[in-house]
Design a protein that fits this description.
globular, mainly beta, 18 strands, disordered N terminus, 18-stranded mixed β-sheet
Length: about 260
């Protein structure tokens, strides 16, 4: 097997100062994908400031979301968060997640485990992705100095060296809990635009994402109740609807809606 210990953190060894990424570069079609080249908020991301970090409250409720494509139900995503534990000597939360999405003849089943530091940054990520019966795996170990990426495609492995980015959050395709962790870890003032560094395990890239708190309020129906939200837009073309206490209730990108159920 490519990954011997599924859903367990890799053991610390000789490469403990490296960031090892075991990533599948197959024909996985993400319903909720990251577009690296799309910058809607500003032509020059260097003109924005980094989003200020806050001590996250990762004791948020567990989450269940429904996927809708062109108004039709297409699947679900759910996550569970543990209390504070320890990962390689660091305080850590564990997020266990799964998603099933079926659209246009493509069925995706995703199971993942994410270890987050107390500041909301990723320490370890593992995901198994099954697309129309074809199984792939992604494993990411976040260390300090270097990124070593192993690309697995059709059973073949390619090793690449990448620079580390210690201040990057994580956002895997379709994993909405990653965005909740991000919003729990940063503070975006009304009408301000910030840059947030995000690592995409599906593309093996660090992406500077601009985010703006529009200050616009909108009532949406969540669990049968009308709820006030604030709209935050980003340079990936996503609109995030946040409750007054920072809960991510809804995400919209193009013809895709993901709504807390």
């Amino acid at each position: 097997a490519l990954i011997k210990k599924k859903f367990e953190p890799a053991q610390k060894g000789k490469e403990n100062t490296k960031k090892k990424i075991l990533i599948v570069m197959g024909s996985v079609i993400a319903v909720f994908a990251i577009s690296i080249s799309l910058f809607l908020l500003s032509p020059n991301p260097q003109n924005t400031q980094m989003a200020p970090a806050v001590e996250p409250e990762i004791g948020w409720e567990n989450g269940d979301y429904d996927f809708f494509i062109n108004g039709q139900h297409a699947g679900f995503y759910s996550y569970n968060v543990s209390g504070l534990t320890e990962y390689e000597g660091k305080g850590s939360y564990i997020l266990i997640e799964k998603a099933e999405i079926d659209s246009a003849g493509i069925r995706q089943e995703i199971k993942g485990t994410l270890y987050l530091s107390k500041s909301g940054l990723p320490l370890y990520y593992y995901s198994k992705i099954v697309v129309n019966g074809m199984e792939n795996e992604i494993e990411v170990n976040f260390y300090d100095e270097k990124t070593v990426e192993n690309v697995i495609k059709l059973g073949r492995e390619t090793v690449l060296d990448l620079p580390a980015n210690e201040n990057a959050y994580i956002a895997a395709n379709n994993m909405i809990g990653h965005w909740q962790a991000l919003f729990s870890s940063i503070q975006i003032e009304e009408s301000e635009t910030y840059t947030v560094n995000i690592f995409s395990p599906n593309t093996a890239k660090f992406i500077p994402v601009m985010m703006k708190n529009t200050g616009l309020k909108e009532e949406i129906v969540i669990r049968g109740r009308r709820t006030n939200t604030t709209k935050v837009i980003d340079s990936l073309g996503q609109t995030h609807y946040l409750s007054d206490d920072g809960r991510l209730l809804k995400v919209v990108q193009g013809n895709v809606e993901i709504i807390l159920s």
